[in-house]
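Shapes recur. One chain:

:::
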Amino acid sequence: MSESSVWSPNIGASLCCKDHPKFGVCTDTSCNKWCLQGCGKEKKATEAVKPRSDFDFAKDMEPKDILSPTRNKVFDFVSKAYAMVDDPSTDSAISWSEDGSSFVVSNPAECCREIFPRLLGISDFARFERFGFTKIESGPKLGFAIDDFVRGKPELLEKIGERYVARLSEYHESKIKPLRDQVKSCKNKKEKELVYKERREKLEMQKRERLDKDFGQEIELLMKRIAKERETREAGVLSKEVEDRVKLLLALM
């Protein structure tokens, strides 16, 4: 690393703009953002990294700090999702509900095929559900809602990450910690491998059961929709929306 790239307050001041806090008043998050990415406004980058002490590394091992990257990841996702739903250009496929307390997916196939990969880096709704969104409407149109994901109130989004981290902490105490204690009590490597194997098999079984249930419900709703379409259209011609849903489900099989 060159001498000019060694961390110092002066470097921080030179990178900051009016929209970015100067060094000395930065929060940890903004300091990290500056060190790794530079000022977001000016789009500059730097190799500068603040020297870390043993105290810093010890602090990183505290649970709240271990979970900070997860909290930030959730916030980043819901922020992008909020911007996507709020963007008028995507209203033909995804938009706010009438009261703004949820969002409606009027074209799931287009979202999974084009909009989600481009704006969120995903291709299905799994991450929404993982982060706490609840499906409130099923069928040709889908509806999702979660507390604090509300039209006109983006400042509430951080609470979603806080709740997700709280659930992870609770899960760790109720599931991971007992498993870790069980592993510690093993007398040899063979006993440990058996514990891990049983855990993997249990998780795989739960995952298959959940997927089978969700997929079965989706197929049932789609079949009802197809039957209704055939009753109202001559020669059983399906609407393009239903055809897209059929293609999407067949691709997942």
